[in-house]
Amino acid sequence: MRVKRLLNQEWRFKLGKLDEPNKLVKKAASIGGLTAPLVDEAGDIVAVGAGGEHFLKLIAQGNRNKGLEMLAGTQLNAELTSKWDTINLPHDWKSRQPFINDPSLLMSGSKQNGQGYYRKTFEVDRSADDDTQVFLHFMGVMGEASIWLNGIFLGNHYSGYSDFSFDITEIVKYHEEGINVVLVKTDTTVGSEGWWYEGAGIYKDVYLEFLPRIRIDAPETFVETDSIENGQARLKIVVGIMNQSGNDRKKTRLLCTINNHTECFDLRPQKSSSTKITYTQVIDDPDLWSINTPNLYQARFQLLLEDKVIDDFQQTFGVRLISYSSNGFYMNKKRVELRGVCEHQDFGGVGIAVNKDILRYKLLKMKKMGVNAYRSSHHFASLDLLDLCDELGIIVMNENRILESSEWRVAELEQMVKQTRNHPSICFWSLCNEELIGNTVLGERIARKLTSVIRRYTTQSLIVSAELLSPKGIVNEAYMNHFDVNGVNYPEAEVNGNGLVMLKKKYPNLFFLSTENASYFSTRGIYRDNAEKCQTSNFGSSFSRVLPGKRKKGDPGVGGTAHPETVMHFIKNNSFMGGVFLWTFMDYFGEPSPFAWPGISSQFGIVDTVGFEKDYYYYYQSQWTSKPMVHVMPHWNREGLSIDKDGLTEVRVFTNCPEVELFINDQSFGRKLSGEDYTSWYVPYITGQLKAVGYSSNKPVEDLRTTSGKAKSTRVRLCYDGISTALYEVDAIDATGHIVPTANNNVRIKIMDGIFLGSANGNPMDISKFNPEEKRFFSGKLMVIVEKNCQKQPKVVAKITEDVQ
Ligand code: GAL
């Protein structure tokens, strides 16, 4: 039977170049050093056979001469003492390194590249067995990875965005044979794949998997929705079966159960062969998967050999149909406007070591804003992310890293499509992002190859590419024709999106989608640009990326590539676009546009690097959700506000209520019909309480900002309680209990009953060192991330250590 065993705990980690084992050796499995058990670990340092005994004798005599090491390939007895840290996965070694001022590292987050080694010993508590194969899976390793097991070099893996595994059936040590040693080298000095912070190290799960030799071939097994008509869904089911044993099997039976209906097939799987069973099943009254009802089904596949179950495999899937037309995207025959966001994969404080808990926290925050789609830019989505999006009803645009069709890239794409094709959330496969060879003859050849790979393995997603519009209007029709939907990044970069509208007129049969848009800068809690502090205003920054010739006269600057309002209008006025994917939901490390050092993170996010909302979160929420809400900006502390020569300051309110009223200290400044985007007032700054009230047919809703004094204490709030991780928001509080939105005091942190994983405050120039004990507030907040390590709930105590603001 199949068994999975996580290997995430208790790895040893060392940063810096080591005297590592050779990849090629002269005697099989005879590398000593770090890939063999060490003196303080049980087991032999070289394999014990006739030749091994000879080695052991020499070693026992203290003969560790060069000749011996030459044969072994490395020093026989590498040191592994206090210099190695003990860590648990997921882990990002780069995130704990200091920030450094080096222009060549600015885009990737101002952290030094290097090598990090991971080593783990484990025992396999069963005997070698002819009926089982053993695999070692790595779900994500950033940097070029080299892996050794028990002195044997298993291989290199190049991309940090694809998972990989090794068949270790023969070379793993079973039971009394001794302990196993896995050594992983991660190297980021050999080049990066992206122009953003990518992190480094083993940042996803590692596990062992024991699989029966005659088994359901998981990547070859899938369930597709063929049609949904008259209340019936017709499913196509393909089951892969492989016999990796040396014997032909006679009586093998396959049982497939979906929705309480079982089909039975008798098979005779030949030795070393694979076969497939394809059948259809109709489900009456299916519970469809959609963004509002993310219903999931389980298919169960069992293999029986002479009435004994030898494999039992469950596959989750969803029943849904999708299509795209000149009117946008359809799911289960209903138009769904894509309200999407683009994301990289890091998170403040932990880098790319983002576990399922942190991911869920982030996805829930997106959903609350009204997001229904996620573009995994610009790389494959992790399986954790896909599981969560299936469960939460979030449409995924899964993205191939790059428009290349070398054999290994093609093999990787093939693997990723196969292993994810049962996820109902994947409605789109994006082939690439803004490739220089897009719309060229070379690009066309490669796109032809890659789209054919995706189409060979799935009919359940639409293929898209994310392109920039050529200012000269250059397109390659053959290239565009390969896609079900032509993605356009930043259609507004062309005045009013005219280029795109003209393209649509010229090619009425092509379908379009805004795969990336806005790139709107803003720093949480900031209402005035300040280049020295790398801060941009939430009212719209004068640091614009719109080309000078295309700026409107008097435009204070759009902050990024387009105002959020312009993006939303464009989508509303051009329904053929199907919706939008905003760049980005979260601030991410690296790409600190429009600043340079000491800017270390981007400011395109709608929330900061830990998910604290910036004001425009509520703009999108007012546009995309219907539960009555209101949000007032700015904060109401004099410092940091822009006050004009007449003593007035702008107050902006986002609401989905038809009417809104503004009060200062309970004096009304007028009730108004809500503006299409927001409602503004220019009011005198008067210390006290700023209040916006939204009126609809429901109970009025309100939002308050109160002038505060200096920060005197903290308030710690558990903002997400996951299975293994808890996220704590720490707020600055003044003497009267009010939040201090401008506080930047230093805070001492103490954690009880938990392990510190990281802290961050969303400041785009927070270059402070990794420090579990201290962190500064930024705009009155910081986040502490804690691993739960026992039955008790962790406790976080935070104390202000200085009396400044
Ligand atoms: C896009 C690019 C993104 C990011 C963004 C910043 O053109 O696809 O990866 O760099 O610009 O505005």
From TrEMBL:
Which residue spans adopt a coiled-coil conformation according to this UniProt entry?
Answer: none
Q: Which residues form the Glycoside hydrolase family 2 immunoglobulin-like beta-sandwich domain?
A: 220-320
**Keyword annotations from UniProtKB, A to Z:** Glycosidase, Hydrolase
- Ranges where the Glycoside hydrolase family 2 catalytic domain occurs: 327-402, 410-439
Q: Which GO terms describe its molecular function?
A: hydrolase activity
* InterPro entries named among the record's database cross-references: Beta-gal/glucu_dom_sf (IPR036156), DUF4982 (IPR032311), Galactose-bd-like_sf (IPR008979), GH (IPR017853), GH2_Domain-Containing (IPR051913), Glyco_hydro2_dom5 (IPR040605), Glyco_hydro_2 (IPR006101), Glyco_hydro_2_cat (IPR006103)
Q: Which residues form the DUF4982 domain?
A: 648-701
Domain spans labelled Glycoside hydrolase family = 713-791
- In its keyword annotation, does this UniProt entry include Cytoplasm? no
Sequence ranges assigned to domain Glycosyl hydrolases family 2 sugar binding in this UniProt record: 111-210
Q: Does the keyword Hydrolase apply?
A: yes
**Which superkingdom heads the taxonomic lineage of this protein's source?**
Bacteria
What family is this protein classified in?
A: Belongs to the glycosyl hydrolase 2 family.
Protein name stated in the entry: Glycoside hydrolase family 2 TIM barrel-domain containing protein
